[in-house]
Amino acid sequence: MGVFKQITGLCSVGLVMAVCLVSGRAADVDQCVQCHQDPAFRVQNKKLFDYFLQWKGSVHDEAGVSCNDCHGGDPSAPEKGRAHEGVLRPTDEKSRVFYQNIPKTCGECHAEVYGNFIQSRHYQVLMDKEGGPNCVTCHGSLNSEIFLSTPVVKTCSQCHNAETGNHPEIVELAERILHRMNVAGMYRKRTTLHYDAVDQPEVMKPTEKLYVEIARSWHQFDFEETDRDSEALLLELRSLYNAVRREERAKASGQGGAKSPAKNPADERAVPVKPPVP
How far is CA 206 from CA 117, 180, 198, in A? Predict the structure, then answer.
């Protein structure tokens, strides 16, 4: 699913994410956490302990999303039997984390992203039990991963490669889009700071709207539209950034050169910047 810090649900992204809180949980002790954080699990059940470590401090943890929000169960029950009541193995088709059910489970918080994903060819393949991807395929689960342009090659190429003949060109296209979004994200960060500082946030509204459109088309895997929109976004943000630089140069010149203009983000190493999550 959505796969860049620009898009996340392009993870995050936004997300940062919607919060799924069980009523009254803020005032109660989460027994799931109390049990699974016990260091004894490192020996008794290292897999479960590692799951806890991946969740701790993650965007899900920070948003108040705990074990029961995805797996079910009763976080108020200190007894193992009661706490695990209703929790099914991931291989059970009725489980909330059965591979075909994961998009719907994630969609309880990420409703708009889910609405976009179910319109995609990937979702159709997933529901036909042909091995299509779900949210976890791209983002991970407990500590959601956000993809830069390089790691996406490894993920997409598992299915899209010359051997399978399944649209191998998609990998290069996705990589190009993500690289473009990384650069656009840096322009966006700097120009947003400037226009917020001069009390002109409305200047950024057209680009914010385009970000939302890119998040939509990315999770629908409509890469032709995403490619076109991401190119338009980069051009617009670069134009805004250059205008900011000219303004700063003029201001610095008027002040005897006391202030240097901002560096060009394109000259810096690309880092992921999270776009608005629908």
Answer: 24, 18, 18
